[in-house]
TrEMBL record:
Organism whose genome encodes this protein: Dendrobium thyrsiflorum (Pinecone-like raceme dendrobium)
Keywords: Iron, Metal-binding, Oxidoreductase
Residue stretches making up the Fe2OG dioxygenase domain: 167-269
InterPro entries for the chain: IPNS-like_FE2OG_OXY, IPNS-like_sf, Iron_ascorbate_oxido_reductase, Oxoglu/Fe-dep_dioxygenase_dom
Record carries keyword Oxidoreductase: yes
GO molecular function: metal ion binding; oxidoreductase activity
Protein name per UniProt: Fe2OG dioxygenase domain-containing protein
Position of the signal peptide: none
Family in the record: Belongs to the iron/ascorbate-dependent oxidoreductase family.
Pfam families xref list: 2OG-FeII_Oxy
């Protein structure tokens, strides 16, 4: 597409290359029959079709809570001496990317019905854990809204209850950094796709996240103090039989920035039933089956070992 020509796709300006913004103000998981819900659902559907991701304005999580989390809790956590990567790749407690200045801490498998204030890494104080508990409770409803709108847009609202019960939630704290001697922009996390269902990225003050669209153009996210970046992962791509696209994304720090923190809230399949199998409603003559049913955690092991060099690991692993 010629960048000198003004073009708009579904209300999305393709010259400025910004992710579309969707406002969830006033909506909750119990108000999905309202007209406002239908309007937002349509915008999300268009955003995923055109640009593979979107920014969401969500006022239930206050700027004060975000500032406490990203300005105090997360920096204090990374100031502690932490261990090496363990458990499953990407889903381990600690995660590094060899050759890149990036470190993450993951709390997997949040069980909200039994959740207590004292969950979280031992390095966190009681008040830090209270802040984290506040954040995760509100992020859970936020995530459920996104999942419900996506399923409704695909005509799969009857699958919502069983689908949402099959999910676990995880939260990842990410620390991106570079040496002060680096004078230019530097990629601190290389292009990759998330393997999960949905990732909601919370970043504050320091930009850096970029998303690749279907035209191989990189879009710089521009979050505000009350917005979040929503990205589809490979599990949802396979479960929707390719109706959803899992975009590449990366983190690049400009020459003025030496450190960036982010918090990523995600959904993953349960540990006891992790088979990804597209609903029959999404398979027909126009949309033949693209991916064979597979076990998510087996795919994770492949994806971050021998599949690490594949251009499209999902297709290689289970493509029809």
């Amino acid at each position: 597409m010629n960048s000198t020509i003004m073009a708009t796709l579904g209300g999305v300006d393709t010259i400025n290359l910004e992710l579309p913004k969707v406002d969830l103000s006033g909506l909750s998981i119990t108000s999905f029959n309202e007209k406002a819900w239908a309007i937002v659902r349509l915008k999300i559907s268009q955003a995923l079709e055109i640009l593979c991701g979107f920014e969401v304005i969500y006022n239930e999580i206050s700027p004060e809570l975000r500032n406490e989390l990203l300005g105090v809790v997360v920096p204090e956590l990374f100031a502690n001496k932490l261990g090496d990567s363990e458990q499953l790749p990407y889903h381990g407690k600690f995660f590094k990317k060899s050759g890149f200045p990036f470190f993450a801490i993951l709390i997997l498998y949040l069980q909200f019905k039994n959740m207590q204030i004292l969950f979280g890494p031992k390095e966190m104080t009681f008040f830090d854990k209270l802040t984290l508990l506040n954040f995760t409770k509100q992020m859970r409803e936020f995530m459920q809204i996104i999942h419900r709108m996506i399923l409704e847009s695909l005509g799969l609202e009857d699958h919502y209850e069983s689908h949402i019960k099959s999910l676990l939630y995880s939260i990842r704290f990410a620390n991106y950094y570079k040496d002060v001697s680096d004078k230019g922009n530097i990629i601190v996390l290389p292009p990759h796709k998330d393997p999960n269902y949905i990732s909601i990225v919370c970043q504050n003050n320091v930009d850096g996240l970029e998303v690749e669209n279907t035209c191989d153009e990189w879009i710089k996210t521009k979050p505000s103090t009350n917005s979040f970046t929503v990205l589809v992962g490979e599990a949802f791509k396979a479960w929707t039989n390719g109706r959803l696209h899992a975009p590449n994304h990366r983190v690049k720090l400009s020459k003025e920035i030496t450190k960036r923190y982010a918090v990523v809230f995600s959904t993953v399949p349960s540990l006891t039933n992790d088979i990804i199998d597209a609903p029959k409603e999404l398979i027909d003559e126009q949309h033949p089956l693209l991916f064979k049913p597979f076990k998510y955690y087996d795919y994770i092991k492949y994806r971050f070992t021998e599949g690490d060099k594949d251009e499209d690991a999902l297709k290689v692993y289970c493509g029809v």
